[in-house]
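Example 3.2
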Amino acid sequence: MAKLRVGDVAPDFTLSDQSGNSVKLAEFRGQSAVVLIFYPGDETPICTMQLCAARDSMDSYQKAGVKVFGVNQGAAESHQKFSNHHKLTTPLLVDKGLAISEKYDAVMGLGPLKLINRTVVAIDKDGKITFYRRGTPDTSDILASFKSNKKPD
């Protein structure tokens, strides 16, 4: 599969969050922008830091009209414990089998030994990718991608 790039249409998906709610990317089209934080594991140091940073930046995301989701292969129960422990405000999506993470080129490894490659993807209201970066980028950089890719009125 070709690598995703800024300007590409984001692959659609339907996943459940830690509470069993169904999240469909297509339902956000025309409604709000979305940020997906693909992270390797619940309760690991860098993942905890990254998702707590998203929690602490939630006012900025909400003011910009952006919905934020964490994504990894962990079970709903693990996500729920992680979310409760750190009072996360970001729904955590269950990508069992890593099918969606693979569509977003957020997986590393070979054969059965696959892990999420920490990746952040921002998707505008039109379903286009405005930001795609590995690691733990700053909220300001993620939000700036929506402004820099905005069409003139």
